[in-house]
Design brief:
The chain is an alpha/beta fold. The longest helix has 15 residues. The protein is built from four helices and five strands, in the order E-E-H-E-H-E-H-E-H. The chain has a five-stranded mixed beta sheet with strand order 1-2-3-4-5, sandwiched between helices. The radius of gyration is 13 Å and the shape is globular.
Length: 111
């Protein structure tokens, strides 16, 4: 898994690629812990190039969301593949996460 970070209008946009699984979740957690320590308030995760997420990946995403919420930070997920979106729906995590169709819509919905 790779993460490319861009900051735009106070929003940290993270472009994820590859798989978020038991092997890559610790790396993702370390990356996002730095953003949480810096108290970044608006984080957008772009899943356009994510091919697979397993249960440890979901658990890591929940941990990131909880960490952000401790200081009022917001997290949005965008451009999930049908396969990944179905996983969020099956696990009912689509009710917990703010999932938006595209990046532009997500950026404007932060305000």
């Amino acid at each position: 898994m790779q993460i490319k970070q861009v900051e735009k209008d106070g929003i940290v946009i993270c472009y994820l690629s590859g798989e978020i699984d038991i092997n890559t979740s610790p790396q993702a957690k370390k990356f996002f812990d730095k953003l949480i320590i810096a108290k970044k308030e608006k984080i957008l995760l772009n899943f356009k190039d994510v091919s697979y997420v397993d249960s440890s990946g979901l658990a890591t995403l929940v941990e990131i969301l909880k960490g952000l919420r401790t200081y009022g930070g917001k997290l949005k997920l965008v451009t999930l593949s049908t396969k990944v979106k179905n996983l969020f729906e099956i696990t009912k995590l689509d009710k917990l996460f703010d999932i938006v169709a595209d990046e532009e819509e997500a950026v404007t919905s932060f305000s």
